[in-house]
Design a protein that fits this description.
Helix 2 packs across helix 3. 31% of the residues lie in helices and 33% in strands. With 174 residues, it is α+β, with helices and mostly antiparallel strands. The protein is elongated, with a radius of gyration of 23 Å. The mean pLDDT is 87. It has a single domain, classed as Bacterial Protein-export protein SecB.
Length: 174
């Protein structure tokens, strides 16, 4: 039997790495966890009888801190406030974190993965925690729409570049 087209031999797994080092860029989630969760149901049980549709306000923020050269904690903070005409139905605040491993990445790619790639991977799990918390508070589960963290990241990078260009332009020119 021929080895032609064999997936194992095509991967070139036997090729020695220089000095045995793993030099390929890699990034991924090591672990993830709820760091802080707060659920408030300030007007229960009255809020369960309200008939007017609530206004849902969703705010989120991404934070990161480097724990070592190859490991960072990425924190996805999500705040949800549900208000009806009669008052606040519920408030949920979640801090959902992931330990992110990154090796052999340049600073630009490391920053991009920290603020766009990692939140994209963490968000579905945070969304489930929020859905369960709202349901456990006595309301129908709240399913947040997917968030395009990569698009938001690119917009912020472009806005920052625009601000830097505007700051460098002579007064009266932009």
């Amino acid at each position: 039997m021929s080895d032609e087209g064999n997936i194992i031999t095509d991967l070139n797994l036997d090729a020695p790495q220089p000095n045995g080092a793993d030099t390929l860029p890699t990034a991924g989630i090591i672990s993830q966890y709820v760091k802080d969760l707060s659920v408030e149901n300030p007007n229960a049980p009255d809020s369960f009888n309200w008939q007017d549709p609530p206004q849902i306000d969703v705010q989120f923020n991404i934070g990161a801190r480097e724990l070592s050269e190859e490991v960072s904690e990425v924190e996805l903070k999500i705040s949800i406030n549900s208000k009806a005409q009669a008052g606040t139905a519920f408030i949920v605040e979640l801090s959902y974190c992931g330990l992110i491993g990154m090796r052999n990445l340049d600073e630009q790619n490391k920053h991009g993965f920290t603020y766009a790639g990692a939140p994209t991977l963490l968000f579905p799990f945070a969304r489930r925690v929020i859905s369960d918390a709202v349901r456990d508070a006595g309301f129908p589960p709240l399913l947040l729409e997917p968030i395009d963290f990569n698009g938001i990241y690119m917009q912020q990078i472009a806005a920052q570049a625009g601000q830097e260009e505007a700051g460098d332009a002579p007064v009266g020119e932009a």
